[in-house]
Amino acid sequence: MLTAIIDYESGNLHSADKAFQKMAREGGGGEVVVTSEADVVAKADRLVLPGDGAFPACAAALAASGVQEALVEAVEQRGVPFMGICVGMQLMARTGHEYEETRGLGWVDGEVMRITPSDPTLKVPHMGWNDLRIDIPHPVLEGVHSGDHAYFVHSYQIRMADPGQRIAKVDYGEDVTAIVGSDNCIGLQFHPEKSGPTGLRMIANFLAWRP
């Protein structure tokens, strides 16, 4: 089994690669590669899309990378399991509204909007540890429970039009979408590779997931 972490020059891939490699070794999850090659993406059994920075820049970088067509075909036509991380999750939405309106991949029904905490003492970006509140069970969350901690660094979130696709949230002066899912796709707003045992458990579950 081959898991491809997509390198489109929009994320720090070292820690993600290290975490996926570790869980693949421990769980017999096959080979993990970081790649910017469309042919590798096309033959991968699982796909991971990280992302750091602004939504428009990440969307443009993905479109220019040469791998987007292979990614879309793999996920939409062949049902390859997909995980989006941070802005990689936000790109799953229909539209982003960071700086300018930007089209996303449209794999979940929502729009990326700035976080607006009701408490003025809560700073944006939302940065640090927060407690997950799980709304919907999911195989990638096996062994993970409400109250478990995950590590966030972001100023925008997906505001879901379809609440059935919001798997988990956190409280940051408002409900902030933490995990989304649809069919063979799951997205994590936080960084699982920086979220201790909780994040590593999700990575291991993803490597074993068969939607």
UniProtKB/TrEMBL annotation:
Cellular-component GO terms for this entry: cytoplasm
Cited CDD domains: GATase1_IGP_Synthase
UniProt-listed GO biological process terms: L-histidine biosynthetic process
Keyword hit for Hydrolase: yes
Source organism superkingdom: Bacteria
Localization annotation: Cytoplasm
Entry annotation: catalytic residues: C86, H191, E193
EC number, as in UniProt: 4.3.2.10, 3.5.1.2
Record keywords: Amino-acid biosynthesis, Cytoplasm, Glutamine amidotransferase, Histidine biosynthesis, Hydrolase, Lyase
Cited Gene3D superfamilies: 3.40.50.880
Pathway(s) per entry: Amino-acid biosynthesis; L-histidine biosynthesis; L-histidine from 5-phospho-alpha-D-ribose 1-diphosphate: step 5/9
Subunit description: Heterodimer of HisH and HisF.
Name recorded for this polypeptide: Imidazole glycerol phosphate synthase subunit HisH
Biological source species: Roseivivax sediminis
Name of the gene encoding the protein in the UniProt record: hisH
